[in-house]
Amino acid sequence: IVCSSKSFLAAADDGGEIKIIDIRQQCLYKTLRNGHSSICSSVQFLPWKPWEVITGGLDSKLVIWDFSKGRPFKVVDLGSSEMKSGNSTGQCFNPAFVHSIAVPDVDILDKLGKICVVARGDGGVDVMNIGSELAANRTKNSVKPRKGSHSQSNDAENTDTRGRLHLDYTLGGHTAAVSCVAFSMFGERGKFIISGGNDKSIKLWNLFKYIDMDQSGSQSDHRDLLHLNIDLSRKVNWLCTTPAATENLVVCDTTKVIKVYSVS
Known about the structure:
Keywords: Repeat, WD repeat
Number of domains: 1
Largest sheet: 4 strands, antiparallel
Strand content: 35-45%
Strand order of the largest sheet: 1-2-3-4
Protein name: Anaphase-promoting complex subunit 4 WD40 domain-containing protein
InterPro entries: WD40/YVTN_repeat-like_dom_sf, WD40_repeat_CS, WD40_repeat_dom_sf, WD40_rpt
CATH topology: Methylamine Dehydrogenase, Chain H
CATH superfamily: YVTN repeat-like/Quinoprotein amine dehydrogenase
Shape: globular
Helix content: under 10%
CATH architecture: 7 Propeller
């Protein structure tokens, strides 16, 4: 469940549908269907497109919707051969289920760009440029928005040409399914991507370093992007940080206890 600045709430369900609730009117605004063929595990509003949401599911698909019309118009299948071709082989045998997605808040868009971070069932973490890559990898199921839609996506307006960054075990990443991802909210907001997984570990990836490398054209090894590894005794179900001076990381694992770690 996630809320938007326009007083909408979105809830993804096990049937693959997404309910958009109008909080002010206290009613169901739209039901988004026919985008996912399995459980819809995660949903996020796109802060730079007020009438769009992006969803991920256990069908290995990312879908961008115009929820004003209730239609999907961009679909990326992470399980397709094209999306696998750039990944390292031998990661793990799980499909590329989408367990969690994260998009940056509007106040850090200038630094991070219009990206989406994806926690994958095969142990990878993808950092994807929504404007360039998702549009370029449309599948047969993609549907163009009809005339009159609130959403006016135009791929040509996106000048950020950064491609996809795939963070996997070859870079010190996870060796089992990644269950959750988040941007760090402490210190320099958005500096780190934080991922937690079924391998009982948490990884902090330095996103600012990657952006600086990309902008300078540096060919530096992406192994430098792993800033910190935290080994735990249990699988990670969820995590988040707080916008405070203290660099605290809140973790929910498979126990009944919520844990707070300091990553400073």
